[in-house]
Design goal:
It is built from 14 helices and two strands. With about 280 residues, it is mostly helical. The protein has one domain: Farnesyl Diphosphate Synthase (Orthogonal Bundle), CATH 1.10.600. α8 crosses α9. The radius of gyration is 18 Å and the shape is globular.
Length: about 280
C-alpha cells in the first residue's frame, strides 16, 4: 500500500472501531451511514501528515485524525438539513434516510465521540473548541448576514472551511509535541488551503461539467448559497487566481517552520498545489 493510503487506512480503522462501540444499535447504524459511506478524508490526512512532518509517529495522531473527521461529518449532516440536500457521497443524506430528528441526534453523537477522542489533551480540546465556534459563526453568517463583497466572502470561507482545516493541522503538530510557533504555522498553512479549496469548489460548481465533476453543478445558485462567483465581482478565472494566492501563502507558512523536506512535508505541499487545479 502506498504512503498516503496507509495513513488514511489507519484513520478508517480507528473510525470503524469507534463506531462499533456505539449504543444503541440504531444510533450506530446512523453513524455508520454518515461516516463510513466514503469521503476524501482530507482533514484527517492533514493531521497525520502534520504530525509526521514535525517528526512524530503517525500512530500518535490517529485519535485526533479520527476525531476531526467525526467533527467534519457532523457539520455535513447539519449542512444537508439546512440545504435540503437529499444526497451525500452518492447515498441518501442522513435526514433523507432517517428523518430530521435522527439526523440531528446523529450529528450530536458524532460530536460526542469526537470530543472523547480529544479529551486526553487539553491543547487539542482548545483547538477543536475554537474551530467549532468559528464553524458555528460561519453557519450563522451564511444564513442571516450573507457576505456581499470579497472580504466578507473570504471571512466566511475561513470560518466554514478554513477553521476545520486549521484545526486538523494544528492537532497533528500538537500530537508531535511541536512548539507553539510550529503549531501556528501549520494552522496558517491549513487555513489558507481550506480557503483555496472552498474558492475552487465554488468555481467548479459554477463552471464544470456535471459528468466530469461527478456531481450536480449549479447547486450554489439553486440553493442561493454565497459562493465566490455569486457575491464578489471576481470572474471564475480571477477567483482561481485568488485561490492560487491563498495556496502560495500556505506554502510560505510551511517554509517558515524550517522543517526538513520529508515525504510528509512534500505531501502537504502537493495538497496546497492540488486544491487549486483539481477538476472534481
Amino acid at each position: 500500500m502506498e504512503y498516503l493510503p496507509r495513513r488514511v487506512a489507519l484513520v478508517d480503522e480507528r473510525l470503524e472501531e469507534v463506531i462499533a462501540g456505539i449504543e444503541p444499535p440504531e444510533l450506530r447504524e446512523e453513524l455508520e451511514h454518515v461516516v463510513l459511506a466514503g469521503g476524501k478524508r482530507v482533514r484527517p490526512a492533514v493531521t497525520i501528515l502534520a504530525c509526521e512532518a514535525v517528526g512524530g509517529d503517525p500512530d500518535d495522531a490517529v485519535d485526533f485524525a479520527a476525531g476531526i473527521e467525526l467533527v467534519h461529518n457532523a457539520s455535513l449532516v447539519v449542512d444537508d438539513i439546512i440545504d435540503r440536500s437529499a444526497v451525500r457521497r452518492g447515498t441518501p443524506s442522513a435526514w433523507a434516510e432517517y428523518g430530521h430528528g435522527p439526523a440531528i441526534v446523529a450529528s450530536d453523537g458524532l460530536l460526542g465521540e469526537a470530543f472523547a477522542l480529544f479529551s486526553s489533551n487539553e491543547r487539542a480540546m482548545g483547538i477543536v473548541a475554537e474551530a467549532m465556534v468559528e464553524l458555528g459563526e460561519g453557519e450563522a453568517v451564511e444564513l442571516v448576514d450573507r457576505p456581499t463583497d470579497e472580504a466578507a466572502y473570504k471571512s466566511l470561507a475561513r470560518k466554514k472551511t478554513g477553521a476545520l482545516f486549521r484545526a486538523a493541522a494544528e492537532l497533528g503538530a500538537v500530537a508531535a509535541a511541536a512548539d507553539p510557533f510550529v503549531v501556528e504555522s501549520f494552522g496558517e498553512y491549513a487555513e489558507r488551503v481550506g480557503v483555496a479549496f472552498q474558492m475552487r469548489d465554488d468555481v467548479l460548481d459554477a463552471t464544470a461539467d456535471p459528468d466530469a465533476l461527478g456531481k450536480p453543478t449549479g447547486q450554489d445558485a439553486e440553493m442561493d448559497r454565497p459562493s465566490v462567483v455569486q457575491v464578489t465581482r471576481l470572474t471564475p478565472a480571477e477567483a482561481n487566481e485568488e485561490a492560487r494566492a491563498q495556496s502560495d501563502a500556505a506554502l510560505s507558512a510551511l517554509d517558515a517552520t524550517d522543517l526538513p523536506d520529508t515525504e510528509a512535508m512534500q505531501y502537504l505541499r502537493d495538497l496546497a498545489e492540488f486544491v487549486v487545479v483539481r477538476e472534481r
